[in-house]
Amino acid sequence: MRDAVAELLGGPQPELSKTIRAALEGRQFGGILGEIPVLGGDYFASECCIAINLDRTQPPDQTRYVLLTTAAYFEFLPFDLVVNHGIAEETVDCSEVEIGKMYEVVVTTCRGLYRFRRGDIVRVLSFHNLSLELKYVMRAPKATGEVFT
């Protein structure tokens, strides 16, 4: 089987490999997309909808999300690598978060998922009306395999 596929493909193509690698290097995909804009989407998970992007014209790295507080009950674990080597023990709710601080998102859904740690670190930017405005920062460091609080 391997020989048949290799024959069909014509063997290794180092020049094509270099071209593809050069187009994919870095965070910009201009070599592939050209003038096609890359836009940020909404913040969804298989567990629930978390937040929506109100300005779809922004690139993904500048996307600001507004938390959908009616989609689930959200709690936040304070996150600071310097102070507590990552994530704190006690959660805070939407009314207790501080603007400018980072948190790991914890979700409780109406379908029975209880205090699920999403593993996403977000920064609270401000409020949009009465909802939190968030920016996705990174995935939480894996200290343990535990995902429920």
TrEMBL record:
Q: Does the keyword Ligase apply?
A: yes
Task: Name the keywords, alphabetized.
Answer: Ligase
Q: Name one Pfam family in it.
A: GH3_M
Work out whether the entry's keyword set contains Manganese. Answer: no
Q: Which GO terms describe its molecular function?
A: ligase activity
Domain named GH3 middle: which ranges?
A: 65-139
Q: Where are the transmembrane segments?
A: none
Spell out the family assignment given in the record's similarity comment: Belongs to the IAA-amido conjugating enzyme family.
Q: What is this protein called?
A: Probable indole-3-acetic acid-amido synthetase GH3.6
In its UniProt entry, the species of origin is given as Nelumbo nucifera (Sacred lotus)
- The encoding gene is LOC109114179
